[in-house]
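Hi Q.,

Before the meeting this afternoon, I wanted you to have the zinc ion prediction in hand. No need to reply - just skim if you have a minute. The sequence and ligand are here:
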Amino acid sequence: MIVPDHLMKLINSGQLIKFYKSKEWRELRKLAMKRDNYECQHCKLEGKVTTRETINKHGRKTKMDVNHIKPVKLFPHLALSLSNTEYLCVYCHNIADGKDEMIKKEPKFVNEERW
Ligand SMILES: [Zn+2]
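Predicted structure with the ligand bound:
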């Protein structure tokens, strides 16, 4: 079971990937995808339907992912809260992550280690 203390240890030791591989997160992810009807929630706000079957301008299917609305690193206690998740396409996810970068203290390093 993942608890905030455990999560903080993973974050502080750079092992957050372990959280994303956990059974708890994978199950929550599935719930979030289903709740969001497998559609990107940000595109939906703009009246567009984007799913993993949507073909992008490069002729490939769109990558989709479940995003934490409030970032795990700042809100570890919300990491497994369904209401803190949203299903997004990779484009909206990048934009959402960019916003997270802006609220960090060292904007100089925004372009490093994006992935
Ligand atoms: Zn989108």
